[in-house]
Amino acid sequence: LSYIPTEYFNGTFYGNGHKIKRLYSSQTSANAMFKITSEAASVSGITLVCPEHFFSVANENNGTITDCLNTSYTKDKPLYKFSGYKGAIADINNGTIQNCGNSSFISIRDGDIASGGICGLNNGTVMNCFNLENGLNSKCFAIAGKNNGILKACYSASSAKITDKNAEDCYSTSIEEIPIPVAFQRVITTQ
Fold first, then answer.
1. Is 7 exposed, middle or buried (0-12, 13-18, 19+ CB in 10 A)?
2. pLDDT tens per residue, range 81-136
3. How buried is 38 (Cβ within 10 angstroms: 0-12 exposed, 13-18 middle, 19+ buried)?
4. How far apart are alpha carbons 30 and 38 in whole angstroms?
5. What is the dihedral of CA 58, 120, 65, 33, to 10 degrees?
6. Is a pLDDT exceeding 80 seen at residue 175?
7. In the chain, where does DSSP find H-type helix?
Protein backbone atom coordinates (compact mmCIF):
# COMPACT_ATOMS: atom_id res chain seq x y z
CA LEU A 1 0.00 0.00 0.00
CA SER A 2 1.62 3.24 -1.12
CA TYR A 3 1.33 5.82 1.62
CA ILE A 4 2.24 9.48 1.89
CA PRO A 5 3.11 10.10 5.55
CA THR A 6 1.09 12.70 7.43
CA GLU A 7 3.32 15.78 7.53
CA TYR A 8 2.30 17.09 10.99
CA PHE A 9 -0.07 15.19 13.26
CA ASN A 10 -1.80 17.03 16.10
CA GLY A 11 -4.64 14.66 17.01
CA THR A 12 -5.46 11.27 18.48
CA PHE A 13 -4.95 8.07 16.49
CA TYR A 14 -6.28 4.95 18.19
CA GLY A 15 -5.61 1.82 16.17
CA ASN A 16 -7.77 -0.44 18.37
CA GLY A 17 -5.13 -3.19 18.11
CA HIS A 18 -5.34 -3.44 14.33
CA LYS A 19 -2.43 -4.40 12.08
CA ILE A 20 -1.33 -2.02 9.36
CA LYS A 21 0.29 -4.11 6.66
CA ARG A 22 2.64 -3.58 3.75
CA LEU A 23 3.00 0.20 3.83
CA TYR A 24 5.68 1.87 1.78
CA SER A 25 6.42 5.41 0.78
CA SER A 26 8.06 6.78 -2.33
CA GLN A 27 9.34 9.64 -0.15
CA THR A 28 12.80 8.50 0.84
CA SER A 29 13.00 11.09 3.61
CA ALA A 30 10.08 9.73 5.62
CA ASN A 31 9.25 6.07 6.09
CA ALA A 32 6.77 6.51 8.92
CA MET A 33 3.05 6.92 9.39
CA PHE A 34 3.63 10.43 10.74
CA LYS A 35 6.59 12.66 9.91
CA ILE A 36 6.14 14.81 13.02
CA THR A 37 3.73 14.42 15.95
CA SER A 38 2.93 17.48 18.08
CA GLU A 39 3.16 17.67 21.88
CA ALA A 40 -0.63 17.19 21.98
CA ALA A 41 -0.61 14.17 19.64
CA SER A 42 -1.44 10.68 20.86
CA VAL A 43 -0.89 7.50 18.83
CA SER A 44 -1.79 4.10 20.28
CA GLY A 45 -2.87 0.54 19.61
CA ILE A 46 -1.30 -0.28 16.24
CA THR A 47 0.94 -3.02 14.90
CA LEU A 48 3.06 -2.31 11.83
CA VAL A 49 3.71 -5.30 9.56
CA CYS A 50 5.74 -4.08 6.59
CA PRO A 51 8.03 -6.89 5.40
CA GLU A 52 9.23 -5.20 2.22
CA HIS A 53 9.87 -1.67 3.48
CA PHE A 54 10.79 -0.56 6.98
CA PHE A 55 8.19 1.77 8.48
CA SER A 56 8.12 3.46 11.90
CA VAL A 57 5.21 5.05 13.70
CA ALA A 58 6.83 8.53 13.60
CA ASN A 59 9.96 10.14 12.26
CA GLU A 60 9.84 12.65 15.12
CA ASN A 61 7.63 12.11 18.16
CA ASN A 62 6.87 15.10 20.37
CA GLY A 63 3.66 13.64 21.83
CA THR A 64 2.77 10.23 23.24
CA ILE A 65 3.02 6.83 21.54
CA THR A 66 1.64 3.88 23.52
CA ASP A 67 0.81 0.21 22.98
CA CYS A 68 2.35 0.01 19.50
CA LEU A 69 4.35 -2.82 18.00
CA ASN A 70 6.58 -3.01 14.94
CA THR A 71 6.91 -6.52 13.49
CA SER A 72 8.36 -5.54 10.13
CA TYR A 73 11.27 -7.62 8.90
CA THR A 74 13.89 -5.70 6.99
CA LYS A 75 17.02 -7.83 7.01
CA ASP A 76 19.03 -7.03 3.89
CA LYS A 77 16.68 -4.12 3.06
CA PRO A 78 18.10 -0.59 3.04
CA LEU A 79 16.62 1.93 5.44
CA TYR A 80 15.87 5.45 4.29
CA LYS A 81 17.52 8.28 6.14
CA PHE A 82 15.44 10.92 7.88
CA SER A 83 17.76 12.44 10.45
CA GLY A 84 20.64 10.07 10.72
CA TYR A 85 18.76 8.15 13.43
CA LYS A 86 16.40 5.20 12.89
CA GLY A 87 14.00 3.54 15.31
CA ALA A 88 11.20 1.00 14.98
CA ILE A 89 8.71 3.19 16.87
CA ALA A 90 10.22 6.68 16.36
CA ASP A 91 13.42 7.89 14.76
CA ILE A 92 13.62 10.80 17.21
CA ASN A 93 11.68 10.84 20.48
CA ASN A 94 11.19 14.17 22.26
CA GLY A 95 7.95 13.02 23.92
CA THR A 96 6.89 9.76 25.56
CA ILE A 97 6.98 6.20 24.21
CA GLN A 98 5.42 3.67 26.56
CA ASN A 99 4.40 -0.01 26.42
CA CYS A 100 5.74 -0.46 22.89
CA GLY A 101 7.69 -3.28 21.31
CA ASN A 102 9.82 -4.21 18.35
CA SER A 103 10.46 -7.54 16.67
CA SER A 104 11.77 -6.11 13.40
CA PHE A 105 15.35 -6.39 12.23
CA ILE A 106 16.98 -2.98 12.11
CA SER A 107 20.01 -2.07 10.06
CA ILE A 108 21.50 1.28 9.20
CA ARG A 109 23.38 2.64 6.25
CA ASP A 110 26.83 4.17 6.17
CA GLY A 111 26.58 7.74 7.34
CA ASP A 112 23.68 7.14 9.70
CA ILE A 113 24.41 7.96 13.33
CA ALA A 114 22.61 5.24 15.30
CA SER A 115 19.53 3.05 15.44
CA GLY A 116 17.47 1.54 18.22
CA GLY A 117 14.77 -1.08 18.56
CA ILE A 118 12.42 1.60 19.93
CA CYS A 119 13.99 4.94 18.93
CA GLY A 120 17.15 6.15 17.26
CA LEU A 121 17.54 9.25 19.45
CA ASN A 122 15.76 9.66 22.78
CA ASN A 123 15.47 13.15 24.24
CA GLY A 124 12.22 12.30 26.05
CA THR A 125 10.95 9.29 27.99
CA VAL A 126 10.89 5.62 26.94
CA MET A 127 9.26 3.31 29.49
CA ASN A 128 8.13 -0.33 29.64
CA CYS A 129 9.26 -1.15 26.11
CA PHE A 130 10.91 -4.25 24.68
CA ASN A 131 13.02 -5.32 21.71
CA LEU A 132 13.37 -8.86 20.35
CA GLU A 133 15.75 -8.35 17.43
CA ASN A 134 19.42 -7.62 16.80
CA GLY A 135 20.98 -4.98 14.62
CA LEU A 136 23.91 -5.36 12.27
CA ASN A 137 26.68 -3.37 13.91
CA SER A 138 27.86 -1.36 16.90
CA LYS A 139 25.62 1.58 15.92
CA CYS A 140 22.50 -0.56 16.51
CA PHE A 141 21.19 -0.58 20.08
CA ALA A 142 18.33 -2.62 21.54
CA ILE A 143 16.18 0.26 22.83
CA ALA A 144 17.68 3.69 22.02
CA GLY A 145 20.56 4.40 19.64
CA LYS A 146 21.49 7.53 21.57
CA ASN A 147 19.89 8.38 24.89
CA ASN A 148 19.75 11.93 26.27
CA GLY A 149 16.48 11.37 28.12
CA ILE A 150 14.83 8.88 30.46
CA LEU A 151 15.00 5.18 29.63
CA LYS A 152 13.26 3.08 32.26
CA ALA A 153 11.98 -0.49 32.77
CA CYS A 154 12.81 -1.70 29.25
CA TYR A 155 14.21 -5.04 28.20
CA SER A 156 15.74 -6.72 25.23
CA ALA A 157 16.02 -10.31 24.11
CA SER A 158 18.76 -9.43 21.63
CA SER A 159 22.51 -9.38 21.99
CA ALA A 160 22.61 -5.64 21.29
CA LYS A 161 23.37 -3.24 24.14
CA ILE A 162 20.29 -1.48 25.60
CA THR A 163 21.60 2.03 24.81
CA ASP A 164 24.72 4.14 24.87
CA LYS A 165 24.09 5.52 28.42
CA ASN A 166 21.58 6.36 31.19
CA ALA A 167 19.26 3.35 31.42
CA GLU A 168 17.36 2.67 34.65
CA ASP A 169 15.98 -0.79 35.53
CA CYS A 170 16.61 -2.05 31.99
CA TYR A 171 18.07 -5.40 31.12
CA SER A 172 19.01 -7.66 28.27
CA THR A 173 18.73 -11.43 28.22
CA SER A 174 17.83 -14.29 25.91
CA ILE A 175 14.24 -14.63 24.69
CA GLU A 176 13.75 -17.94 26.51
CA GLU A 177 14.33 -16.27 29.87
CA ILE A 178 11.79 -13.44 29.72
CA PRO A 179 8.02 -13.32 29.60
CA ILE A 180 6.64 -11.48 26.59
CA PRO A 181 3.84 -9.09 27.64
CA VAL A 182 0.46 -10.75 27.12
CA ALA A 183 -0.75 -7.94 24.85
CA PHE A 184 2.02 -8.75 22.37
CA GLN A 185 2.12 -12.57 22.60
CA ARG A 186 -0.68 -13.12 20.07
CA VAL A 187 0.78 -10.63 17.57
CA ILE A 188 4.30 -12.06 17.68
CA THR A 189 3.29 -15.72 17.46
CA THR A 190 0.78 -15.34 14.60
CA GLN A 191 2.92 -13.61 11.96
1. exposed
2. 444 788 889 999 999 999 999 887 766 665 567 788 899 899 999 999 998 876 65
3. middle
4. 16
5. 20
6. no
7. 182-189
